[in-house]
Structure prediction request, 112 residues.
Amino acid sequence: MDCIFCKIAAGEIPSKKAYEDEQVLAFYDIDPQAPVHILIIPKRHIASASEITSENSGIVAHIYEVVAKLAKDLKLEKGYRVVTNTGEDGGQTVGHMHFHLLAGRSLAWPPG
Ligand code: AMP
Ligand code: ZN
Prediction:
Protein backbone atom coordinates (compact mmCIF):
# COMPACT_ATOMS: atom_id res chain seq x y z
CA MET A 1 0.00 0.00 0.00
CA ASP A 2 1.28 3.43 -0.96
CA CYS A 3 0.83 5.13 2.42
CA ILE A 4 3.43 7.64 3.60
CA PHE A 5 2.71 7.06 7.31
CA CYS A 6 2.91 3.26 6.90
CA LYS A 7 6.34 3.86 5.34
CA ILE A 8 7.35 6.12 8.24
CA ALA A 9 6.09 3.48 10.72
CA ALA A 10 8.18 0.85 8.90
CA GLY A 11 11.26 3.09 8.92
CA GLU A 12 11.31 3.25 5.11
CA ILE A 13 10.93 7.05 5.26
CA PRO A 14 12.95 8.80 7.97
CA SER A 15 11.29 10.76 10.76
CA LYS A 16 12.35 12.51 13.95
CA LYS A 17 11.02 10.12 16.54
CA ALA A 18 9.46 11.32 19.80
CA TYR A 19 8.18 7.95 21.10
CA GLU A 20 7.78 4.40 19.81
CA ASP A 21 6.38 1.11 21.05
CA GLU A 22 4.93 -2.00 19.42
CA GLN A 23 1.65 -0.33 18.55
CA VAL A 24 2.37 3.34 17.91
CA LEU A 25 4.93 5.80 16.63
CA ALA A 26 5.15 9.49 17.54
CA PHE A 27 7.27 11.75 15.36
CA TYR A 28 7.74 15.46 14.74
CA ASP A 29 5.60 17.06 12.02
CA ILE A 30 7.64 18.15 9.00
CA ASP A 31 5.67 21.44 8.81
CA PRO A 32 5.18 22.46 12.45
CA GLN A 33 2.21 24.67 13.29
CA ALA A 34 3.34 25.30 16.87
CA PRO A 35 6.66 25.15 18.77
CA VAL A 36 5.78 21.54 19.66
CA HIS A 37 4.00 19.63 16.87
CA ILE A 38 4.11 15.85 17.10
CA LEU A 39 2.06 13.29 15.18
CA ILE A 40 1.02 10.07 16.91
CA ILE A 41 0.02 7.21 14.60
CA PRO A 42 -0.97 3.58 14.97
CA LYS A 43 1.63 1.41 13.22
CA ARG A 44 -1.21 -0.64 11.76
CA HIS A 45 -2.92 1.19 8.92
CA ILE A 46 -6.26 2.77 9.86
CA ALA A 47 -7.44 5.20 7.18
CA SER A 48 -9.15 7.69 9.46
CA ALA A 49 -11.00 8.11 12.75
CA SER A 50 -14.12 7.10 10.81
CA GLU A 51 -12.68 3.56 10.66
CA ILE A 52 -12.67 3.15 14.46
CA THR A 53 -14.87 0.27 15.62
CA SER A 54 -15.27 -1.83 18.76
CA GLU A 55 -12.58 -4.10 17.27
CA ASN A 56 -9.82 -1.48 17.03
CA SER A 57 -10.81 1.31 19.42
CA GLY A 58 -8.24 0.20 22.01
CA ILE A 59 -5.55 1.93 19.96
CA VAL A 60 -7.22 5.30 20.57
CA ALA A 61 -7.01 4.83 24.34
CA HIS A 62 -3.38 3.78 23.97
CA ILE A 63 -2.60 6.85 21.84
CA TYR A 64 -4.02 9.07 24.59
CA GLU A 65 -1.76 7.30 27.10
CA VAL A 66 1.16 8.21 24.83
CA VAL A 67 -0.09 11.81 24.61
CA ALA A 68 -0.11 12.06 28.41
CA LYS A 69 3.38 10.57 28.61
CA LEU A 70 4.74 12.97 25.96
CA ALA A 71 3.09 15.93 27.73
CA LYS A 72 4.79 14.88 30.97
CA ASP A 73 8.19 14.19 29.37
CA LEU A 74 8.12 17.44 27.36
CA LYS A 75 6.84 19.40 30.37
CA LEU A 76 3.79 20.81 28.61
CA GLU A 77 2.40 22.14 31.90
CA LYS A 78 0.71 25.11 30.22
CA GLY A 79 -1.42 22.80 28.13
CA TYR A 80 -1.71 21.37 24.68
CA ARG A 81 -4.21 20.40 22.01
CA VAL A 82 -4.83 17.02 20.36
CA VAL A 83 -6.42 17.16 16.90
CA THR A 84 -7.53 14.42 14.53
CA ASN A 85 -8.50 15.94 11.20
CA THR A 86 -10.94 13.55 9.53
CA GLY A 87 -12.07 13.55 5.94
CA GLU A 88 -12.18 16.37 3.41
CA ASP A 89 -14.01 19.00 5.47
CA GLY A 90 -11.95 18.02 8.50
CA GLY A 91 -8.78 18.93 6.61
CA GLN A 92 -7.26 15.44 6.55
CA THR A 93 -4.45 15.30 3.97
CA VAL A 94 -2.81 11.97 4.87
CA GLY A 95 -5.06 8.89 4.74
CA HIS A 96 -3.60 7.15 7.79
CA MET A 97 -5.22 8.16 11.08
CA HIS A 98 -3.02 10.48 13.13
CA PHE A 99 -3.29 12.64 16.22
CA HIS A 100 -1.60 16.06 16.16
CA LEU A 101 -0.15 17.08 19.53
CA LEU A 102 0.25 20.87 19.46
CA ALA A 103 1.79 22.94 22.24
CA GLY A 104 4.17 25.74 23.11
CA ARG A 105 1.92 28.69 22.29
CA SER A 106 -1.62 29.82 22.99
CA LEU A 107 -3.87 28.10 20.44
CA ALA A 108 -6.88 29.86 18.94
CA TRP A 109 -10.41 28.55 19.42
CA PRO A 110 -12.53 27.90 17.44
CA PRO A 111 -10.22 26.68 14.68
CA GLY A 112 -10.56 28.28 11.24
P1 AMP B 1 -3.46 16.23 8.23
O1 AMP B 1 -3.45 17.43 7.32
O2 AMP B 1 -4.27 16.40 9.46
O3 AMP B 1 -3.81 14.97 7.46
O4 AMP B 1 -1.99 16.09 8.76
C1 AMP B 1 -0.95 15.55 8.00
C2 AMP B 1 0.31 16.09 8.60
O5 AMP B 1 1.39 15.28 8.18
C3 AMP B 1 0.65 17.53 8.19
O6 AMP B 1 0.73 18.35 9.35
C4 AMP B 1 2.00 17.38 7.49
O7 AMP B 1 2.87 18.46 7.73
C5 AMP B 1 2.53 16.08 8.07
N1 AMP B 1 3.48 15.35 7.26
C6 AMP B 1 3.35 14.99 5.96
N2 AMP B 1 4.42 14.30 5.55
C7 AMP B 1 5.26 14.20 6.62
C8 AMP B 1 6.51 13.60 6.84
N3 AMP B 1 7.18 12.93 5.88
N4 AMP B 1 7.07 13.70 8.08
C9 AMP B 1 6.43 14.38 9.05
N5 AMP B 1 5.22 14.95 8.91
C10 AMP B 1 4.65 14.87 7.71
ZN1 ZN C 1 -0.90 3.74 6.39
